[in-house]
Design goal:
Number of domains: 3
CATH class of the largest domain: Alpha Beta
Number of helices: 27
CATH architecture of the largest domain: Alpha-Beta Barrel
Structural class: alpha/beta
CATH superfamily of the largest domain: Phosphatidylinositol (PI) phosphodiesterase
Length: 710
């Protein structure tokens, strides 16, 4: 091959390699966050850190509020600033992630559908934000706000953008193959070049140019935004989304730039021809020397643009200068490293031989590869932007009250449990309560496992009577659990109202007999939903003693708005970590004691859970013997209350929920059963030291104690 032909081939390979590397890094860096639902949802939430996006979303929510309650237009100036605070909060970002994930999946599961990003739980957060500022105004906020974040035209445009990238994503593997081909083309350009040292410098410069072209993609979003819309606010939103999706190319650009600096330093050292100080002196002469008129005008325009940019964005300009100085120092340092390497490789011969030159090339190649990996890794660690996992991206970093719990699997965490959580003194007319407070207060205080009973009941004037025919439960079965005294009281109430039914059979929270206290399931579960929306870093377990059809129970959870929060995966080990559940938006795990089939996410409790007995009458009766559930089930529940039917006693809870007593039993059961207790179920959770014991078992109070399941 002639020298000229080799030079042309080398140049062609450099150009093809640069284009291939740039394309592969753009596709590989951006496509994953567009075509996969979880990274997509995280990046949507991350855009809220951009004030332009946050302001737009706050305005859209305010529009939705005023549209439902037109009279609130007079206090719009109070509502919108509060919305800005809501949008910046972790709960709101969790809602956005959940909605974005659902919209993404819906888009790819439904042909021809637009991506509709709506926020159905906004009213919970809005009322909470306004409660401290203006309680009267908070009370006027409608409960069912569902704000759409984009117009139909914007939704169609966004859908086209996502689907276009989805086509690219289907051949994502080809992008990485293209990257390998691009790197191979750059290496081949050096190999076939008639002057390999110059080719090495040129390849390094090409990689550095690729890095600059990757970085240039981010500000190009402003041009795209200007082309899409003339609305200044929407332009900011488009640019914010652009940066969120193409932001991952920044670390890739740093790697490419690092490789380019290493190659250029290696080649210039072998040539001893590229002197940055000489180049700087030549640049200065160009800036000050007289030029022909056209070049003079071009230089003037360049200087004016640079000066205007420095005046308009002094911090960015200073950052650029510092970065340039840093790169120069890196280049000089690498050149010195390669000088030492070359000196050792060539030996002390006055005239390098063919063998010494070949050896020098091998040593330089190895040293270059090591430096590319090391420098690229250092660039990632030092210069990369905020990671996707973090508050900046809307990801909660504290799980169930502690960052230490985030990376533990759900069966490696202890949950404070409320036995018969639905039975509480806040419910009007409830007889024999097991707790002092209802679900929202229980959750707020720290309960994370709700053990509840659901029955069919029929409203009869001001009472509810148990629908035994519908649920197929005998009176004798419930009597055996509640005792004769409660049963007799329930029968007296039932006989008084039987035949005076005022409604249809429905789901109620009852303890055995709805005659002793009942309230509808859906509104109470809505309270659970509201609390979970406002607390996006919390994982909750619900165990249902169910006397109802699974489909009816599932419908109640769906009607309460809990369905998007429910865990739908497997309960076979290894189970997900708290962080994974939170990141997936599936923070509620629901079990049923009956284990009836029909609804996949209603997990059979005693296929996944083992427990202790629960009929203890004195503290001395407590034991850790196996009860329901197999010995290999991953979850372990300790039932810890004294049975004093029909009325539980807070005085007993004060004894058995005391720190030393409860902790000693939990540790004894852990030793005997060989498994960390995951649920400590008690009566009167706020009497005694339940939460302190849970913290100790989770290793949060005692540094030497680390909770781990076997």
């Amino acid at each position: 091959m002639t020298t000229a032909r080799s030079a042309r081939t080398s140049t062609t390979l450099v150009i093809l390699g640069a284009v291939a590397v740039w394309t592969a890094l753009i596709v590989g860096g951006a496509a994953r966050g567009i075509i996969r639902p979880d990274p997509f949802a995280r990046r949507v939430a991350a855009t809220l850190s951009d004030p332009r996006v946050a302001g737009y979303v706050a305005s859209r929510i305010t529009d939705a509020i005023v549209a439902q309650r037109p009279n609130l237009v007079s206090v719009r100036s109070l509502i919108e600033p509060a919305m800005t605070g809501v949008v910046s909060s972790a709960p709101f970002r969790a809602v956005v992630r959940t909605s974005a994930r659902a919209a993404h999946r819906s888009l790819f599961e439904s042909v021809g559908q637009n991506m509709v990003l709506s926020l159905p739980d906004v009213s919970v957060l809005v009322r909470g934000a306004l409660q401290n500022i203006n309680p009267e105004l908070a009370a006027k906020i409608p409960p069912g706000i569902e704000a759409n974040l984009a117009s139909p035209q914007a939704e169609r445009a966004f859908t086209r953008f996502i689907k276009a990238w989805a086509l690219v994503g289907r051949i994502l593997w080809a992008a990485w193959a293209l990257l390998l081909l691009g790197v191979a083309a750059l290496v081949a350009s050096i190999w076939v070049a008639p002057d390999r040292q110059n080719a090495l410098v040129r390849a390094g410069g090409t990689l550095f140019a690729v890095a600059l072209a990757l970085i240039a993609v981010l500000p190009a979003g402003r041009i795209v935004a200007a082309a899409i819309t003339s609305d200044p606010m929407l332009r900011g939103v488009v640019h914010g989304l652009w940066v969120a999706y193409f932001g991952p190319v920044k670390p890739l650009a740093l790697i490419a730039g690092s490789a380019g600096v290493v190659f250029a330093a290696a080649g210039s050292t072998m040539l001893e021809a590229v002197d940055p100080f000489a180049r700087a002196e030549a640049l200065w002469r160009w800036l000050t020397a007289p030029l022909r008129p056209s070049a003079h005008i071009g230089r003037a325009v360049l200087l004016l643009a640079a000066g205007a940019y420095a005046a308009a964005a002094p911090s960015r300009a200073a950052t650029g200068v510092i970065a340039a100085v840093g790169l120069l120092l890196v280049f000089l340092g690498l050149r010195e490293v390669f000088r030492l390497v070359l000196t050792g490789a060539r030996g002390s011969a006055a005239v390098p031989t063919t063998r010494s030159e070949a050896r020098a090339w091998r040593v330089v190649a190895i040293a270059g590869l090591v430096l590319v990996v090391g420098l690229g890794g250092a660039a990632l660690l030092v210069f990369r932007g905020p990671p996707e996992v973090g508050e900046a991206a809307g990801i909660v970093t504290v799980c169930n009250g502690s960052a230490k719990l985030c990376n533990r699997r759900i069966n490696q965490v202890v949950f404070a449990g409320a036995h018969n959580a639905m039975s509480n003194a806040e419910i009007p007319g409830w007889l024999f309560p097991h707790h002092n407070h209802a679900f929202p207060r229980q959750l707020q205080d720290g309960v994370r496992a709700l053990l509840i009973d659901v029955h069919y009941g029929v409203p009869a004037e001001e009472h509810v009577i148990t629908d035994f025919n519908h649920e197929g439960t005998s009176l004798d079965k419930i009597q055996s659990a509640l005792g004769p005294e409660a049963t007799q009281a329930a029968v007296r109430i039932r006989n008084r109202f039987l035949g005076h039914e005022t409604g249809k059979s429905a789901l109620y929270f009852c303890h055995g007999f709805c005659e002793l206290g009942a309230y509808p399931v859906v509104p109470a579960l809505e309270g659970v939903r509201d609390w979970m929306v406002a607390n996006p870093g919390e994982v909750v377990v619900i165990v249902v003693e169910d006397y109802v059809d699974p489909l009816d129970l599932a419908h109640a959870f769906e009607e309460a708005g809990l369905l998007p929060l429910i865990y739908t995966g497997s309960v076979a080990p290894p189970l997900p970590t708290l962080r994974e559940l939170i990141d997936w938006g599936q923070r509620l795990m629901v079990f049923t004691e009956s284990g009836k089939p029909g609804v996949p996410w209603l997990k059979p409790a005693f296929e996944s859970m083992q427990e202790t007995p629960y009929s203890f009458h004195t503290p001395a009766d407590f034991s850790c013997k196996p009860n329901r559930g197999g010995a290999t089930a991953p979850f372990f529940e300790i039932n810890h209350w004294l049975e004093t039917t029909p009325a539980p006693k807070p005085s007993n809870a004060a004894i058995v929920n005391a720190y030393d007593f409860l902790l000693a039993r939990a540790r004894a059961c852990r030793q005997q059963r060989g498994r960390l207790p995951n649920i400590l179920a008690v009566d009167f959770y706020d009497v005694g030291d339940l939460f302190r014991v849970v913290r100790t078992l989770n290793g949060l109070d005692e540094p030497a104690t680390v909770a781990r399941a076997r």
